Amino acid sequence: MEFSPSVFFLSFASILLLAGGLLFKSLLKFFASDRPQGLPLPPGTMGWPYMGETFQLYSQDPNVFFASKRKRYGSIFKTHVLGCPCVMISSPEAAKFVLVTKSHLFKPTFPASKERMLGKEAIFFHQGAYHMKLRKLVLRAFLPEAIKNIVPDIQNIAKDSLQCWEGRLINTFQEMKSYTFNVALLSIFGKDEVLYREDLKRCYYILEKGYNSMPINLPGTLFNKSMKARKELARILAKILSTRRQMKLDHNDLLGSFMGDKEGLTDDQIADNIIGVIFAARDTTASVLTWILKYLGENPSVLQAVTEEQEAIMRSEQRGDEEKVLTWADTKKMPITSRVIQETLRVASILSFTFREAVEDVEYEGENSSFQKS
């Protein structure tokens, strides 16, 4: 029995876009100061001045770097990558300590290069009232009232993707990234996205290549090319904002949610958070979809159950040879599909690592080490 993933992808794609940025693996990075402190830092090496061990990390499979460090120093060690002194951990106990037990002592953060590319006003870099306001605006754009009208459009994106894959040997993760990027643009810009899709895609693809680069803004460097793409991306977003203001129409998408904020966000704040949402959603959602396909391929009985569920929906209310257009109500008739997604989110490693910054010096007794405030 053949499995058509078009229906499967679209039903929860928008929800996954929101949830994707919140998922992580137990390997975490924490910024730490390299100045002398009373509390001891974990064992490890800091590498060359400024460059640290960035070259060792990215000149090979990063997993090799992590494995060699873990073998030598244990599950928690210090290093210096992307211009930042940091502590890396990989044990469940340490992850729970940072993310749950003492979560109030750490805040989300990113290396300086990635922060400059995403924009300092992005939600990741803030706490308090501003963070809460942005969170509400993002959630508003992903409520059923906002996404139920774009289900047929997501279906069309899935169908277009399937047609592009026909007869080809594909890299699943890369194709899922392309698919989720198109769905993300639809969720952010609504049906206007088709007018700007190619320009936005071209700029963002250049931008993301520099996310893990050293923040050296010299001609020819990845960072320099990415920052140029970032500026062009901001100009495109400014043009979209200007056009919408001139038309004076209400839009039930993420950009409309940002523009409709009563307290008012500046254009820079809107641009930073639009880019931030794309960044948070794209790789994580693509990772989820890739894991789902892997698990379904390894479990034929589950694949058959999901396929039968989807085919039953497609047959319902179908008129002749005309293909059924999916609706929001149809997504509520997918209990097996929903359970597959939830189980994948539970067991899969969606991200290789994530970042936290200590807001004050913190002692971790489990390893007789500390995380130090920047």
TrEMBL record:
The chain crosses the membrane at residues 6-28. Gene3D superfamilies: Cytochrome P450. The keyword Membrane applies. This is Abscisic acid 8'-hydroxylase CYP707A2-like. It holds the Pfam family p450. It comes from Populus alba x Populus x berolinensis. One of its GO terms (biological process) is sterol metabolic process. Belongs to the cytochrome P450 family. InterPro entries: Cyt_P450 (IPR001128), Cyt_P450_E_grp-IV (IPR002403), Cyt_P450_sf (IPR036396). One of its GO terms (molecular function) is iron ion binding.
